[in-house]
Specification:
The complex is a heterodimer of chains A (288) and B (289).
Chain A: H1 2-5, H2 10-36, E1 39-41, E2 46-48, H3 52-60, H4 64-93, H5 98-109, H6 116-127, H7 133-138, H8 152-163, H9 166-177, H10 182-189, H11 194-222, H12 226-231, H13 243-252, H14 257-281
Chain B: H1 2-49, H2 70-78, H3 81-112, H4 118-128, H5 133-147, H6 153-157, H7 164-175, H8 179-187, H9 192-203, H10 205-221, H11 224-229, H12 238-248, H13 253-273, H14 275-285
The chains are: A mainly alpha (288), B mainly alpha (289).
């Protein structure tokens, strides 16, 4: 009886090293984190307070709603622009020889191997009001891109869009390569214009890849922290406070671990919903 | 009739001419876009080798004239750059080795073995990829505090040893390997451990290489966790050290860009060497559905 259930006891031995670390440093902290969100929790002690932390962040914390809005603004700016850029470049380089394609893919991927810390440092220098490169190129001397409530967030979005997109280009190119060329030949015979081919053949067949990238891009945009921490610290006037930055401030500046955990749980729910949406949309995959 | 034929021929001729032009325009456009994302990196290197006085002049100098090492010397003199590099290397190498090890073992079990609880366990791993790191951030910090592991290598390394993504990736990869070889080895009297080290490990090497490279780059560049769990200046990793240097001397761009160049160039070289693995690895890593 037992043998039928435990068909291969060795399997557990192989999983054990991974599982021990997974349980201690992931499963246990997740449960603890959720429990913590229902407690008033500081460095000195804690007590059960039910939904008080949630009530606090949604009604009394002046910054939580703001941070949600800022984060949504950031994601709504980054995701379409960055995906549009990746899609456009993939389509443009696709007709070329493999070597040229690889060259461009590598060029666009290059910024991805440097730390967000380094990218942020470089762009602080580029955005610098008197001597930065951007003001020189645009002829807008002394304009403080990051010091202005109206331009700080767009500047962060711009930076992300310019430096990002590399891995999406690789993924979209791979998807383009897997579309059978017969489709285009048939369309050509029927007299379809390149535009019609793009809209009627390419885009529908790229849909699963694009949806995947939208979801992944949104999820990672919702978790933006390093750029904010290095470049604006949430300023000016809280115009760039994002959720994760607020979690950091709440936990490690104010040491209100309970409220910070509640924010993290809300973020988890948001990300979970995006993931669920992707799972639903992609349930029916495209067959060639 | 004749005119329409002439028209069609003219249109065809025009199309023949148009194609190369369109391609030229495409290359120019894509090159400009590529330059936009590479110029910042180039600008970092230029500033790092520039005389400090020349960085604050108009128009900006596109070449260091003449190149100088003084920014790097100043950087080494005022920060623990060597110690940070050592820390980054120790942390990244240890995490990469242990993560690839645990992931390959577990991935093999999920791919080739039948056992009670297999599906529940696998979906726990997959599901955990949806949980943002911020949920575990505070509990992990308190846990490390209690274990007395703040400001230690173990404190930075331990949470990264088990990787659901790594397990998933290795499971997907090992699944594609022929089971016949494993069965044959077992029939020939190979022990369970022998099957793993002699058959699975050599065959899984390309998958492990992809996982190792991505893990190494990720860990070398990681910021939030090492930033939170370390406080002593000598325990910082490179990104954390540089971020705090940025706060110390926010306007000394030559010094900061020297630091950025110093940290970025090794990864850029790794990328150029293993470019093939990188570009292939991206498609392996992104699995739909």
């Amino acid at each position: 009886m037992i043998r039928r259930f435990v068909r291969d006891p060795w399997a557990y031995a192989f999983i054990l090293p991974s599982f021990v670390f997974f349980a201690v440093f992931f499963l246990f902290p997740v449960v603890w984190g959720i429990v913590m969100s229902f407690r008033y929790y500081t460095l000195v002690g804690s007590e059960w307070v039910g939904f008080d932390n949630y009530r606090y962040i949604f009604t009394d914390d002046p910054l939580f709603w703001r941070s949600l809005r800022n984060t949504a603004y950031y994601a709504a700016g980054v995701v379409p622009l960055w995906l549009g850029k990746a899609l456009l470049i993939s389509l443009l380089i696709f007709p070329f020889r493999k070597s040229i394609q690889t060259f461009f893919k590598a060029a666009f991927y290059l910024p991805h191997v440097t730390s967000a810390v380094i990218i942020s440092m470089i762009w602080l220098w580029i955005f610098n009001p008197p001597f930065g490169l951007l003001n020189y190129i645009l002829g807008t001397r002394d304009f403080a891109w990051l010091g202005n409530t109206a331009t700080a967030m767009p500047a962060l979005i711009l930076m992300q869009v310019i430096m990002g997109g590399g891995s999406s280009i690789v993924l979209i190119s791979a998807a383009l390569g897997s579309i059978p060329s017969d489709y285009y030949e048939a369309a050509e015979l029927d007299g379809a214009t390149p535009w019609q081919q793009a809209v009627r053949i390419t885009l529908p067949l790229l849909k699963p890849t694009l949806l995947y990238l939208v979801v992944m891009g949104t999820i990672s945009s919702f978790q933006v922290f390093t750029n904010i921490y290095l470049m604006t610290k949430g300023g000016p006037q809280f115009s760039t406070v994002t959720i994760v930055y607020l979690i950091y401030e709440t936990a490690f500046r104010i040491y209100d671990f309970g409220a910070a955990s509640a924010m993290a749980v809300i973020l988890f729910i948001i990300i979970f919903l995006f993931g669920l949406a992707q799972f639903k949309w992609l349930g029916t995959d495209v067959e060639y | 009739m004749a005119t329409s034929l002439q028209l069609r021929r003219r249109r065809m001729l025009r199309r023949v001419h148009r194609v190369p032009l369109r391609r030229v325009l495409a290359v120019i456009f894509v090159s400009v876009m590529a330059c936009m994302s590479i110029i910042p990196l180039y600008w970092m290197v230029v500033t790092a080798f520039q005389q400090p006085t020349l960085s604050v002049t108009f128009p900006p100098k596109w070449f260091p004239s003449p190149p100088t090492m003084r920014n790097f010397n100043a950087l080494f003199a005022r920060s623990h750059l060597f110690q940070w590099t050592l820390n980054s290397a120790i942390v990244s190498v240890t995490i990469t080795a242990s993560l690839v090890f645990t992931s390959t073992l577990a991935g093999y079990a999920f791919a080739k073995k039948q056992f009670f609880g297999r599906n529940v366990l696998f979906w726990t791993y997959v599901g955990s990829m949806m949980v943002p790191g911020q949920v575990t951030l505070i509990p992990l910090y308190l846990l490390m505090n209690r274990l007395g592991l703040r400001d230690t290598y173990a404190g930075i390394i331990l949470p990264a040893v088990a990787s659901p993504f790594g397990v998933f990736l290795m499971k997907q990869y090992i699944q594609t390997l022929p089971s016949v070889l494993i069965d044959a080895a077992r029939i020939d009297g190979c022990s369970e451990f022998g099957v793993f080290t002699r058959i699975v490990l050599p065959l899984a090497r390309p998958g492990m290489a992809v996982l190792a490279i991505f893990t190494f780059v990720d860990q070398w560049n990681d910021f939030l966790w090492p930033f939170i769990i370390t406080s002593r200046a000598t325990m910082r990793t490179l990104p954390v050290g540089l971020a705090l240097l940025q706060e110390e001397v926010p306007l000394d761009f030559n010094l900061l860009m020297a630091g950025a160049t110093y940290a970025a160039v090794p990864m850029i070289l790794v990328f150029l060497f293993f470019q093939r693995y990188f570009l292939r690895g991206i498609t392996v890593g992104a699995v739909k559905g």
